[in-house]
Amino acid sequence: MAPIRMIDIAVNFTDGMFKGIYNGKQHHVSDIATVLSRAWNAGVDRIIVTGGSLEESKEALAIAETDGRLFCTVGVHPTRCKEFEESGDPEKHFQALLALAKEGIQKGKVVAIGECGLDYDRLHFCPAEIQKKYFEKQFELAYATKLPMFLHMRAAAEDFCEIMQQNISKFSGGVTHSFTGTAEDRDKLLSFHNMYIGINGCSLKMAENLDVVKDIPLERMMIETDSPYCEIKSTHAGIKFVKSLWPSKKKEKYDQESLVKGRNEPCLVRQVLEVVAGCRGISDIDQLSATLYQNTCRVFFPQDLDAAADALLAGRHERFNPLLTKSKLKILPFSCFFIKGHGWEENHSNIDFKSEIAEMFNFSSNNMSIKYFLPGNKKTLITISKDKDLQRMVNFIDDTSTVDVFVVLEDAAAARNVSNMPASRSSRTTISEAVVPIVAPANAAVGMNDGIDQLDMDMADGTSLDCMPINTIDGKHHKAAQNWENMITGVDQRFNSFNEFREALHKYSIAHGFAYRYKQNVSHRVTVKCKAQGCPWRIYASRLSTTQLICIKKMNPTHTCEGASVKAGYRATRGWVGSIIKEKLKASPNYKPKDIANDIKREYGIQLNYSQAWRAKEIAREQLQGSFKEAYNLLPYFCEKIKETNPGSIATFNTKDDSSFHRLFVSFHASISGFLQGCRPLIFLDSTTMNSKYQGMLLAAIAADAEDGIFPVAFAVVDDETEDNWTWFLRELKSAVSTSTQLTFVADFQNGLKRALADVFVKCYHSYCLRHLADKLNRDLKGQFSHDARRFMINDFYTAARAPRLEGFQRATESIKCISPEAYDWVIQSEPEHWANAFFGGARYNHMISSFGQEFYSWVSEAHEYPITHMIDLLRGKMMETIYKRRVDSSQWMTKLTPSNEEKLQKETAMARSLQVLLTQGSVFEVRGECVEGTFVEVVNIDHWDCSCKGWQLTGLPCCHAIAVFECIGRSSYDYCSRYLTTESFRLTYAESIHPVPNIDRPIEDESLDVAVTVTPPTKRPPANARALATTRRLAKNPSVDVGHLECLDDLLAVACFLSLLVSCFDLSSPFRVLT
């Protein structure tokens, strides 16, 4: 079992306590070196020093440069954001931070932007508005440097998450450290897929804190001390789980062998690890530390840039495989006597060092590299490539009597003529075959290069160190394969799963140019051998007893085959390409197959055709987003979780007789309640195509809030837009929004909607979507009239629809009749009572097209490429965020009407001042005014909320004529406004919240469901030429079509289908040419 490895992600080494200063008084000398020694001995192998201001960040960088295992952040703490303003030039201050971050990146030390965020517990240091302003500004630092974020959040979850969401595209990921929030705050953070949560002593104070920590997924957690603060105290709830203790003394009795009481230190991160394990009931603390370590590396050290620090990770049994040519490799050993006893100076450069070695052994320094073993580590060779590496080696071996150092030579002539083909297996050489390093005491003589080829070498643990060649590299291709030569390092190497082992093996085989096959491949062990007949290379791995780890138990690294015979097709499987490109696809969802093929050729020298690249992209997408097929099988669980986490919600699905998916309906309780409590009785029905793997349609019912913002009430995923599916959807909708109020629907009249609405909502008003009507009119007129003539008639049609009174409708339709009596007949016969204001009986508040919910459909277009459960959850997340944001916004409103309606009312009020009201008995008034045509007269009935202009009825707000009456008789206009347009109604609409649905893609094993249904993907796949048809329509008028740009055409058969489709759909009288 490997020793515990930990990374402390937050240490404030710039704090005065580490310099011996407490409350302004010096109590002892600076003891950072002593503190670090304790940390390294406790199992900490990397530390991130946090910066909280520009000057502090500079100091953090300086401290980080003192040790290869120290790294730092650059940023401004929320409580210090006033420094931007106080600098006199905030932009200049920002540029100084950016320059410092870039400098630190160059030095390999700055790994994150931060500590930045929001802290509403300490507003006395910095006001909230300034905190928010410069929190958002620092996302630009992350964007410019491509670094993750190191974040701080205290009592500010709502604003914090809102700013995060607004800047989600500017940073790759990060951690919210020193988390002390509620379960709700935790879930908000976890809703960001790239956000981790940092835990320290402050996170473990009370039993409630422990309960919150228990439910943080381990794969989203990191640990820290935030020292010298946030220690785990004897009064904390988590103290009962602490096992590791250190002696401590008061600062007045300082002893470097003891901790300072009340001052936290990085070594105590082990206590945090123990409390996390204890409160979660985890007995395997080694595995827990490995998981948290991996999380931290994933965010802050994805490339493991610091080789020396990486080599310190115990249990990483790596072997170095130097690049070989077909000429013989020479490895020349010497002792550290050369370093210590040869006039070594602090400023000794790597070039000088190589020159002295070259002179000593009488060869050129141009084709040599220097490598060394760390003291006590006979598994990992570290390469010295720059002055910093050389100095680090000296620091590592400073207290050691011996060190193993190797000089690796290549034949310069051979190196200049490297073949593109894989190196011959027969040319492979191991250290034991070629040369042996001699481990000598510090006072040994140097001359020991005689006869070394005849010696054998064994490592301390009996494992020989194998030096194996990778495919030779031409400098243009196979660049990435260099990183894979050590994916398999030999016996005792461990993996988290068999999948991880198989992926490593595949990359290793590509780097070393050989094919392999599985001799045994079962759930608990794997045996693999070289595919070449008679080649002895083989490897055996099995599950490590009592753990989930996979360990290599046996390995014969010797090849006798010719790797050059391996076909590229074998190595470039779709799964392999998918695993290679998935990170880039994650960052660039629009990564095109053509670009994938180009990148694979450039990086690995392997040519892919378009079809291979496209399918690899599909595999990578599935790896990132989950299985499309499995997502359907999770629908029963998913629907139950929606109803469990959002009580009162409706989530139901249907399958066909063969158990294949048919349709899914979702309506959240917050949507149902919001519609019934605050929205107008007006619903927009529309559909949109989903271009996902299994395609289908999304049907939606969208309401309008008081500000005319979209409010999704319900939506469904169906296999096709049919009358049957619309009828089913409307029945589900009716059960969700059961109300005695007469509803108005704005919807298309085609695709079965007209009959479905009449069948389900018997007494509703159906307003035909004006856009769909106009499109149909335009299509029916096409070919009979010129473009201009059709344009005039369409404009007149819209005028007729919007005319509030009969005379206006008649004038517009007469204009159409003057151009075409047939078009006039079409309009009159199209049931104007369903679309014209002059006849329509429902209340649609001047909304006349069903695509009102376009914003919602844009969310669908962003999510449709995900598996069905993820897509629904992404829509849920969008709705959740919208509800939260609008609730917060409306809390600031002070007017009775919402802002936009208040503005409309004030405009009508201003117009009313020029009108004359003639008093009559009762509630009916005559209002006169002047216009360009002369004097006009309108009749207002205040009891019926009616004006002859129809403006009041159409909008829900009093028109200027009605307002003139109110002012004349001393009444308030606000009393005659529709209640649906008030601030109160808006707040009622967004009073309820939509809650997260956890674990949508991985049901908890012991979680039992009442539903036991197997759901398979839709059996009816979309036609293979669906995309070709769409492309054909776009290109029909273009006599030259580039088939290479039609992504759905994978082979000649598809090309033939496309041409056949093209000929059948269009009259191609002009010459037609296809470019292949």
Task: For the structure shown, list the relevant keywords.
single chain; 1076 residues; alpha/beta; 8-stranded parallel beta sheet; 7-stranded mixed beta sheet; 38 helices; globular
Strand order of the largest sheet: 1-4-5-6-7-8-9-10
Q: Which class do the helix and strand fractions yield?
A: alpha/beta
Distance between the termini: 59 Å
Helix segment tally: 38
Report on the structure:
- By secondary structure, the chain is of the alpha/beta class.
- It is 38% helix and 16% strand.
- The protein contains 38 helices and 34 strands.
- The chain has an 8-stranded parallel sheet with strand order 1-4-5-6-7-8-9-10. It has a 7-stranded mixed sheet with strand order 22-23-26-25-24-27-28, with helices on both faces. A 5-stranded antiparallel sheet has the order 17-21-20-19-18.
- Helix 26 links the parallel strand 27 (744-747) and strand 28 (765-768).
- The two termini are 59 Å apart.
- Pfam families: DBD_Tnp_Mut, MULE, SWIM, TatD_DNase.
- Keywords: Hydrolase, Metal-binding, Nuclease, Zinc, Zinc-finger.
- Residues 938-970 form the SWIM-type domain.
